[in-house]
Each structure stands twice: as C-alpha cells, then as structure tokens.
Recover the amino acids of this structure.
C-alpha cells in the first residue's frame, strides 16, 4: 500500500469516476484502474462496484474510506515537518562522572550556565574510571569531574582543582561518637567499617580505605557498590562509613566526623582545552566561583 494508491482511491471515491479521477491526478485512466486493482488485491476485498454507467463504493469501500483519509493525512503531515531544514539549536555539553552521587554537586552550576546559555543541553556519562578518561581523550566528553589520581603514570589532560574534600566517618546522628570533633583510629577499631568496593572506588580514596583497614578482619568490613548503599547500611546501624565529605551532599540524619591523620583529597575537573569550547570555559569559571566546598582563595 502506498500514497499514490490511497490518493487514487480517495479521488475515485470523491468523483465516482475513473476518468475524472485520472484528470485530477494528471495520469491516465488505466494507471488509476491499475492502482485501484492493486489496492483491492492487497486488501483482498472489492472497494468499488463498476458498471458501464456508474461507479459506486461497496460496503467495504465505505469502511476503508476513513482509514485511507487518516493514513494519507498522517503521511502528508510527516512530510511537511521536514519540508524546511530543521535547525537543532541545542548546545550539548557532556560531563563525565565516576558515580551518580557526584552529579548532585552540579545542579547550581548548570542552572547558572543556562542563564548565559538558554539552549544548554547537558549530557552525563557515568562509567568506570579508566573508560571515562578514555572518553575525554577521544573528545566524547567535554570534562570529567573526579578526585585527582596521584598515582597515574600519565595524567589525562589538564587538571583544575575545585575543592579540598575531607574524609569522614559517617554514622547516625545521636550516637556517642557523633559528638566528637574528630575520630581517631581507636574509634574506628571499635566499629565495623562500611567501604566502597575497591573496583568502584577512585584510587585516592581506595588508598585511604586500605590504610584504615590494615589489620582488620574481613568480618569487620562491608564492601558496597555505591555511596548510597553505604549510607543505607549506616542508617541501619551496621557500622561507620568511610566517605568523602561534600557538605552539600550531607544527609541530615547522619553525622560526618573528620578522621584524624587523613589528608583531604583534591577534587576537580579534567579537560583537554578550553580553546574553541566556550561552554567548557563557562563551566570552569562557574565552578571556580560556586563549586560546593571549593578551596578558600
């Protein structure tokens, strides 16, 4: 079934004449007859009753009339949509993150970006670490927000620090340890530790976790697939989570207590170049002035 068949059918149904239909469609009468016969064969039914004097719609033709009009109208509308070139005014900006939790650091930055760029269309890539840096190298993402990896043999692109992030012990508010200004190693030894799975954990944080768990038995540890899973176990009373402390991401039901002797981690943006990328330049400028937990200037 095609649009010409439908046009022939509708024109014959309107004029009740193959001759008049052929004139309106600027084709020969045999061409119209052929299209109607092909349509009838495809539908396995007779649409018109023909005599030497008249042409009239069969009952089946009357039933098909509304369907034919609807189908032809939909096709015509679809074609009109693309008669003029479609200009996509969206300005795409792709951000790579190591975890969904870190995406919650960016709403205010993105909102401010839209004030300068109303057509901004953010895209997020949340995938494992090394694959993410590969996307940056290939230009698939504009920027990667992540903890700085000190042990990388070859640092990917340019790194700009956005915040110094303390490592905290996270526990339910109201517990005795939640009243302390800082947790020492003895405090941690008295509790089970809830940690990120090393395979899902940035190397810089993994080094801290390894240091704090040296000498601990496996039964004292919970390894979790995400920060959200860690916090669920904390709320359920399974122990203390070791996590980066972004003040803007704190759960009010929990206490975030710094751990003595643990240096803060550098969190920032990896990118290749701002040249020819005004959205990246704007993003970095806004992060410099508005990123949660940014270092004091």
């Amino acid at each position: 079934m095609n649009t010409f068949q439908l046009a022939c059918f509708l024109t014959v149904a309107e004029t009740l004449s193959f001759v008049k239909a052929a004139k309106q469609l600027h084709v020969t009468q045999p061409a119209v007859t052929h299209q109607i016969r092909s349509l009838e064969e495809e539908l396995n039914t007779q649409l018109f009753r023909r005599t030497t004097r008249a042409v009239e719609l069969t009952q089946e033709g009357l039933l098909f009339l509304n369907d034919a009009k609807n189908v032809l109208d939909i096709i015509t509308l679809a074609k009109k949509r693309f008669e003029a070139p479609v200009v996509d005014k969206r300005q795409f900006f792709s951000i790579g993150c190591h975890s969904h939790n870190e995406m919650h650091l960016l709403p205010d930055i993105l909102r401010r970006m839209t004030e300068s760029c109303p057509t901004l269309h953010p895209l997020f890539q949340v995938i494992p670490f090394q694959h993410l840096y590969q996307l940056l190298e290939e230009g698939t993402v504009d920027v990667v927000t992540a903890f700085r990896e000190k042990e990388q043999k070859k640092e990917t692109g340019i790194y700009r620090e956005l915040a110094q992030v303390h490592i905290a012990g996270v526990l339910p508010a109201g517990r005795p340890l939640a009243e302390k200004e800082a947790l020492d190693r003895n405090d941690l030894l008295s509790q089970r530790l809830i940690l990120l799975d090393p395979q899902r954990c940035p190397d810089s944080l993994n080094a801290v976790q390894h240091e704090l768990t040296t000498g601990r038995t496996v039964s004292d540890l919970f390894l979790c697939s995400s920060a959200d899973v860690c916090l669920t176990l904390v709320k359920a009373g399974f122990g203390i989570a070791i996590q980066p402390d972004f003040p803007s991401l704190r759960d009010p039901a929990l206490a975030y207590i710094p751990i003595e002797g643990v240096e803060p981690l550098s969190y920032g943006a990896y990118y290749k170049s701002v040249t020819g990328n005004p959205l990246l330049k704007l993003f970095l400028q806004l992060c410099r002035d508005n990123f949660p937990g940014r270092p004091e200037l």
User: Anything to note?
Assistant: The first helix runs from residue 3 to 15. The radius of gyration is 34 Å. Residues 161 and 268 are 4 Å apart (CA to CA). The longest strand covers residues 158-172.
